[in-house]
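Anyone? Bumping this.
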Amino acid sequence: MWKPAQRIKFHPATGRVPTREEAARSRLFSRLRAGPLHLQQRTWVPAMVPWRSNEEGEATVDVLQWYERFARGRPGALVIEATGIRDVPSGPLLRISHDRYVDGLSALVDTIRRASDGHTQVFIQIIDFLNIRRRPEAEKYFQRFLRVTPRHRALLGAADWSEDAVRAHLAGLPPAAQQAILDAREWEALQFGARERVTDTDLPHIRELPQTLPGLFSAAAARARAAGFDGVELHYAHAYTMASFLSATNTRDDGYGGERANRVRLPLEVYAAVRKAVGRDFVVGCRYLAEECIDGGNQVDDAAWFGVEFARAGMDFISTSRGGKFDDAKQPGIGSSAYPYTGRSGYECMPQYLSDEFGPFGRNIAPTATIRRAIHAAGFTTPVVCTGGVHNFDMAEAMLVREECDIVGTARQSLADPDWALKTSLGLGREVRLCEYTNYCEGLDQKHKQVTCQLWDRSELEEPAVRLASDGKRRLVAPPWSATTADLPAVAPSATRA
Ligand SMILES: Cc1cc2nc3c(=O)[nH]c(=O)nc-3n(C[C@H](O)[C@H](O)[C@H](O)COP(=O)(O)O)c2cc1C
Ligand code: SF4
């Protein structure tokens, strides 16, 4: 992963540990009620893909156990990982692309409700992404993948050569000469693997995305409702289709690119279709980028403008992330795909402990606060979730008190210790296992290996019934932590949708 040149080491701290009474009076552990969003506390576990599904995209036992473990910590909300809406093979990515997935996802919802004792609202993040190929071997690329065009022939002076001769000649050229003959996309396909973009409107399936995506997203959301989820999070962030429509790099000329109003058009049409499918009493929000963190990408003023439009349209929450783009991703090894968290924008998305002067903690707070202010200035009160490097009570509480956001997301801190908020609420904050922001977990994600945390994955392996990763060396969920039942807050029925 890219790291800032400064490489200053940062260490997370527990901060001030509130007593149980202080915690009970805090903003973090106060309720939030906004439309169908009913949070018992303002803690939120954002989507994290743990690679626990199978090639069929099902909610396996490992998927259930993974989320059960988070639910035991009773966060205000738990967002299930990015889940595919197209019924096509997608590797071990969880899917919600057909009615056959509803029963499995329903079991997942039941598991979470039981484990959190009804304290946690359960959402699922639904995603569309475009095709990306692995980086090819150069020889194969020239033999099989490159489409030989008149342009290549003209540049080579090879008008009457056979196609095989053109391919063989190109393959034998030094890289600089190859680059001079190939166009930018062909060179990218050779160096990184071919990657579709929303601007490839010469391809019918890309041109027709504005016609196909509202139906795909709304059908997936209807399944989420049927499975018993409390809501859906539309994935409008990072490197994926909807974020690419919002991006300042979207130059489509069919009314869905160019100016902001055109770029937000499909995200709003998708939202409208989803809302129509699920009704008003089901939570629908989106996750999008406060800043794209790439050259020529969206800045916070774009994101503030989009935030107001999402609020005006009636979304129930807005959750921010940052960066995570393909545009500046590092070159993958041959046979691997580009990963959108390897460049500077990837660092901004999941910053690790080696950082610049600002450090890895709270890089998204200021832009998120700008977005929230714009939403309020426009007369809306849509709750805003801010995530990024938050790991202790003090930090989370300050974000809420300063009204920089309404809900605090903790991804890696929740992975490091799924009980961190529960322990804190009970006055036991000293027992929290702090995330060290090493990005060991993110490294596993990059290789599509089962994600675990280095702080617990080798602990208590001898425990009965412990399930191990496919390498046989790591436990798949954090060891149990138990507060006595008397310690736990009472069940709050409003957390569960009828
Ligand atoms: C293993 C892993 C998987 C992730 N998967 C997703 C995902 O499916 N959808 C998403 O929006 N963000 C995903 N993220 C990003 C996190 O939700 C979060 O925005 C990021 O880790 C920064 O927050 P943190 O500092 O609290 O970890 C993932 C992060 C990690 C570490
Ligand atoms: S492996 Fe654990 S400690 Fe390291 S960044 Fe991930 S969650 Fe934090």
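Late reply, but here is one note on the structure posted above: The first strand starts at residue 8 and ends at 9.
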